[in-house]
Amino acid sequence: MSEQTSQIFQARKARLRIDPWSAGAVLIAAVVLVPIVAVFWFAMTPTENIWPHLLRTTLPRYLGNTVVLMLSVGLLTAAIGTGAAWIVVMYRFPGRAILQWALLMPLAVPAYVGAYALVDFLEYAGPVQSALRDMMGWQTARDYWFPAIRTREAAIMVLSAALYPYVYLLARAAFREQSGAAYEVARALGAGAFARFWRVGLPLARPAIAAGVAVVMMETVNDFGTVDYFAVQTLTTGIFSIWLQGGNLGGAAQLATVALGLIIILVTLEKLSRRRSKFFGSARGMRPVTPAALHGWHGAMATALCLFPVLVGFVMPVAVLASHAFDAGEWIAPGLRRALWHTLQVGGIAAFLTVLGGVFMVYGVRLSNRRLPRLLMPITAIGYAAPGAVLGLGVLVPLAAFDNAFADFIVWLGFADPGLILTGSAAAVTLAYVVRFFAIAQGTADAAFGRVSPSLPMAARALGRTAGGTLRAVHLPLMRASVGSALLLVFVDSVKELPATLLLRPFNYDTLATRVHAKASLENIAEAAPAALIITLVGLAAVALLARANR
Prior knowledge:
Radius of gyration: 26 Å
Distance between the termini: 65 Å
Number of domains: 2
Helix content: over 70%
CATH superfamily of the largest domain: MetI-like
Largest sheet: 2 strands, parallel
Strand order of the largest sheet: 1-2
Order of helices and strands: HHHHEHHHHHHHHHEHHHHHHHHHHHH
Number of helices: 25
Structural class: mainly alpha
């Protein structure tokens, strides 16, 4: 055998050899992508095709409401988040030091919790209408007019109040990174405050704002608790209705593909906007923006504008819930303790598995020379964009099929029927959380690996460390803060997740989110308040982490 032939043979042998890191990365990607593929498969092969019926009846209403919610919430959050970010970056005013972080606090309150609080606050027996009747001497609802509360417009307001921090966070970072010289030149050319915002600041920050609005719109499509409570029929509520009430898997999957199509369009538009908008600053001449001082009524107006979304998105919901929670005996109820334990258990396991999978996959792709893992890694982020109801549908049916096949196999072997091992336990809920929030762990791990100097792992390998040993001894100690942040963020998002949990939880298995939804759906806000406050406290941990990371 010639030397050249031997080299070719060795190269082919190396390509055929199974690399455990590459194989693991491909396996993780498969687990994340199977639910999405399953939804498309069910939609293409329905046992009972109701697509023509959907087109004639409910689909236009579902799609119309979803699009109106997306566009309205997107525009409103863009205005609130961008405006608040511009004010806190460009000006000094009373309360600025506190408000620039307080503006993030509505992220701790899930939108469905805000919906329950708003209705309780404004309904006929609530404090607002009761106070009006006492002051004006009105006796019944016939004596006065008050706007309807459970409407699509109210849902838009609640979703905007809960989601605007996504835009605010990215817009604030974009404005802070801009050069103060650009604004000085604009001021010297006679541009006023609004002209500097409209012609300088906004165009430079547009990619960041577009990314924040895209996230807001995806969360709007994912929402179930708010729109269900306000009786707004969207694609997500349609999936629940057709699947749980109508028992039609194919029809639910077809609606799910429409929701996924909207998300794919959003992600594509956001990527295009960032690709077409590129701005570069000179590192030598880069000066930070110097905030201008506002005094008198100008400063008071700036304070009021930044305080209002905090009051609506955080203070009002928490105050309403607290007023009920202090009088409730729900704190010692066994159901609350079980829901808290289930939440900690499922959320903790999901966070650990998600971050473990994200670190393993990113490390495996970095070690591997194979093309397939590198192609699959970006695609796994689609789970975060998929609504929870869509993922619930994609997870439930394949796991149920596996459970039934496994049980039949055990019975065939002569043993007792083991029952539904995965779908009869919290395993399905855990898997849905892993798929949905895998992008958070993957993105955090990828950024953390990128900050490690290549010379350190190279030195470890030269000293005889294996790939796994290098990961344990070099990378993980340096990535400890990032890994901890990813664990917390995935855990908090798992605690707040409602649609996937409602679809996948076993019988008589509640988490904090499902308990809040069940109690509030029965108009029992007093018993829903303790669980909602616990969810909010957990969310505040994530807000504190974001505030610390963006100082």
